[in-house]
Amino acid sequence: MTLRRKALTLRWLTLLVLFGLVEALPRAGLVRPATLEPASVILGRLMEIIVTGSIPSPYFARTGSPTLASHVSATLGSILLSYAGAVVVGTAGGVLLWRVPLLARILQPYLVVYYALPLFALYPLFILLFGVGFLPIVLLGFCFAIVVVMVNTALGLRRVDEEVYPKVGRSLGLGPAQMYLSIYLPAAAPYVFSGWKLGFVYSTISVVASEFLISVRGLGHVIDRSYRNFETANMYAAILLVIAGVLVANAMLTRLERRLYRRRG
Amino acid sequence: MREKPRRVRLGQAAVLLGLLAAWEGLSRKAGGLFLPGPGAAVSTVADGVQGGWLLPHLATTVVELGWAYVWAVAIGLSLGFGLGTRPVLREAYEDLLLNLYAVPKVTLFPLFLASFKLGMASKVAFGAFHGLFPVAIYTWTAIRTMNPVHLKVARSLKLSSWETFWRVLFPAVLPGIVTGLRLGFNLTLLGVVLGEMFASRGGLGFLLMSFAGAFDATRIVAVIVVLVVMALGANGMLLALERRIRRGPEGYLQVS
Hints:
Radius of gyration of chain B: 22 Å
Number of domains of chain A: 1
Number of helices of chain A: 11
Largest sheet of chain B: none
Oligomer: heterodimer
CATH topology of chain A: MetI-like fold
Structural class of chain A: mainly alpha
Number of domains of chain B: 1
């Protein structure tokens, strides 16, 4: 058996064993149903939620937000808004860092420790300042994603500077606008995109975590409320939905990233 | 990159002063009750130390963080060395682990609560789970990208497998690993605080959430200051360690 075949077998075997454990432990009564429902029940509940478009929960029926769409749209909206802001401002900031090396050197120690700070500690403060709702969630998502976009943009442009492309452009006598459009944009695109991809992951993590802590809507909110109301199947169904969504989005972004790198050669 | 260190220093001091001034300005504009300024924050920290509402929770967080980090490093290094030295394991599990790393891990916190109960153990386990990924990823990447000549030399010198590990493999991958150790610490702290914020009866995260419930912005800011000092202090030490081991000059915008 080749290494690849062996590895694939091992991976699927592991996943199968995990699935089997999640199925068997609750069925055998070794884990209480308040802790874990069998895998088949969770998957069934997830299908039911997707097909009917509503969460079968007395709690969400009472609070008037039983539909899946209301939570998915809240989460997606917060992610997209914070992510768009981080991409626009972060990319511009990255270009600025790259254009002004002194600024990059001044900010370096601050950028190094930025992600060392437990940024979620700001969330309760944001709640007091802006109220419970979209604004604090979007703001925190923005703060969480912007620096990774900025740093990767500057690093990418800097890497292009060390390559041959700008020299070619200059020897062709390109103006500043043409240098940006025909040299830096295509040459730095894959590096910058790697930062954009990380930014998406970061803003998703932040939005879901904020919803999880204090919120009125969103998939993180569904997980939190289902946990507190002992609706175990709903909780795991929502967790699965979030994980599946992130994995699909991540796979799409990775494919796009690979294509950019390949086109560049 | 060595010219004008003075201008850089001055600029860095100016940024710090600018941040503090902006904080003070925002606080004046919003009103000190909604957003206390730096002065109020520091005096509230002092009040917390004297009044006794801060230190026990700080101790809880430090203990949880310590144990979580020990576990994160132990599991992260084992995973890293396992996947780094065995191609089959890496082929089988690398993608799975990288994907798990990108998932918002908070969503899995209820699982930890269910398996470890409400006390410290669930926060320790969750913090470790949060922090082990960078340690593991940086370790296996360092092993994979290490110069294979080192291992060939070890083989031709007929070193035992223990000697090969201790004298060749370990020193060669150490620079990569220390970066992972620092990033792992950051994520462990984040995980512990998140866990405390979601469900606990102690710790700085718990304080944050209960002060949020009481609309006490002053104490929230004081707790944030404590957390920031903690994070910066630990990071300063880990960064110094990293620089000593790496020794080479610092790269452009090298943040990880």
